[in-house]
Amino acid sequence: MILEIVAVTGGLGLLIAGLGMAILRLLRGRSIGVMLAVVAVVTVAATLAGVVAITIEMIIDGHPKNVVLTVVAVAGLVGLGVALAVARQVVAASRKLVAAVEAVTASRDYIPPAGPLPAELTTISEALDQAYGRLREGRERERALEGARRELVAWVSHDLRTPLAGMRAMVEALEDGVVADAGTVRRYHNQIRHEVDRLSHMVDDLFELSRIHAGTLRLSPRRVGVGDLVADALAGVEALAKAKGVRLTGEAGHVLPVYADADELGRALRNLVVNAIRHTPEDGAVVVRVEADERIVRLSVADCCGGIPEEDLARVFDVAFRGEAARTPGPDGGAGLGLAIARGIVEAHEGAIDVVNEGPGCRFEIRLPISEAAT
């Protein structure tokens, strides 16, 4: 008898459950309240199916049967009422969350709904807050990048126009025969070649910076000896230092190799040294040091520039920042892109770069991780 009741009750329960799942599948795009109501109805129907099975077997009859059916019916109505109340709360909380999202505008940030929310909706609200925070940071970076681009166009337009105007004047003088003596002609030719080399260097810097900003800088990392990197950088700028009357010093002890693109990282270090030479007065010194611990290699470039104003320290690596009001490039042809390029290259290596005032000048420092591949 018991097995027969269990079989009938289980069969009816499975049938009702299957019907309920089919209804929920059809209503999966509807309100949560409707779904909870369906769940409550399915629960009551399954319970009634069990009572019906018992009644069919004549275990309960007469007045007891009516009492059982009444109790089950009342319990079902109570369950349905509770389900509808919970559904209203969930729907109200969902609408509050939707209203908070719809209130977000370009001038207004996301404000989480007031009052408690169900745990799942609270998690969604926190995730939305974080997502909108990242979007806000992205917009701020985009605005800063757009401002830097406009500033770059203004600076480079000026820096290109000045040497082009000088070359045009010299070319016209040579073409018109205004300059005829061999010494002046040779000087004009040398000056034109110098300006062409300077413009070519500026174009190379612009191309490198555009690759960094576009995220298309491709690195070819391999084991690189930091001491060799410093030696190559100093050798490449030795002539510039002698012409300026600046002493160059390199201090590199036994340091583990780093896993990096030697050409790009060498360019970043060379840009820092050239910048230091450019701002160090005659008879000053530029010192390049290499230090390391178990996890990080530090390459520092110290100069005698007299220091950088505190309000400018945060802008040193910005595009076209020269630390001076005059836009006219110096004799070395700097376009204000070297430090921005150095930062992009270092960050592409998952490193960091910063600057602090120290001693008679300032100290730029590159920090690179010692990867397992390098060790």
UniProtKB/TrEMBL annotation:
EC number(s)?
2.7.13.3
> Per its record, what are the GO molecular function terms?
kinase activity
Q: Where is the Histidine kinase domain?
A: 155-372
**Chain ranges passing through the membrane:** 6-27, 34-60, 66-87
Q: Which UniProt keywords apply?
A: Kinase, Membrane, Phosphoprotein, Transferase, Transmembrane, Transmembrane helix, Two-component regulatory system
Q: Which organism is it from?
A: Sphaerisporangium dianthi
Coiled coil (residue ranges): none
Q: Which InterPro entries match?
A: BphY/WalK/GraS-like (IPR050351), HATPase_C_sf (IPR036890), HATPase_dom (IPR003594), His_kinase_dom (IPR005467), HisK_dim/P_dom (IPR003661), HisK_dim/P_sf (IPR036097), Sig_transdc_His_kin-like_C (IPR004358)
* Known catalytic reactions: ATP + protein L-histidine = ADP + protein N-phospho-L-histidine
Name this protein carries in UniProt: Sensor-like histidine kinase SenX3
